[in-house]
Every structure is written in C-alpha cells, then in structure tokens.
Specification:
Elements (H helix, E strand, L loop, with lengths): L2 H9 L4 H44 L11 H5 L6
Length: about 80
C-alpha cells in the first residue's frame, strides 16, 4: 500500500468531525508548502536582481581600472588637497 491508501484506510472510519479535522490539516499543509515555494521563488528572484545590480555597478568602471593600484595617484587629486 502506498501512503495515500494508508491515509484512506486510517480515516475512512472516522466520525465526520474528525475527518474534517484531517481535511483541514491537509489543506494547511498544502497552503504551507505553497507559501514556502512562493517565498523561495521571491528570494531567488531578489538575489538574482541584487547580483545583477552589483555587477552593473562594477561594470561601469571596468574600462577605467587596469588592476594596478597607485596610492600616490589616488591621493594626488585636487579635491583632497
């Protein structure tokens, strides 16, 4: 027997009020799962947006920075004098 059959066997002889409780619990589990999936999808979407935004900020300076840091040139700017 699979799980669905076992649940049916266990619940078929329950009084109507208790069967309603089981049904309510099943609906609760389905709603909980749906909320978790939606939350996960939103989180993943938000993370990918942040990654794109972060990289976009660095990409605009990609052609300016050659990978070498010159401390003297950094501090030799008119607004720092």
């Amino acid at each position: 027997m699979n799980t669905v059959d076992l649940i049916y066997q266990e619940t078929k002889d329950l009084p109507e009020t208790e069967a309603r409780e089981v049904l309510d619990f099943v609906e609760f589990l389905k709603a909980k799962r749906r909320r978790e999936l939606e939350s996960s999808a939103k989180s993943q979407h938000r993370e990918s947006d942040l990654e794109k935004a972060d990289m976009g900020e660095f990409d605009q300076f990609g052609s300016v920075y050659d990978g070498h840091f010159d401390r003297d040139a950094c501090y030799d700017r008119p607004n720092l004098r």
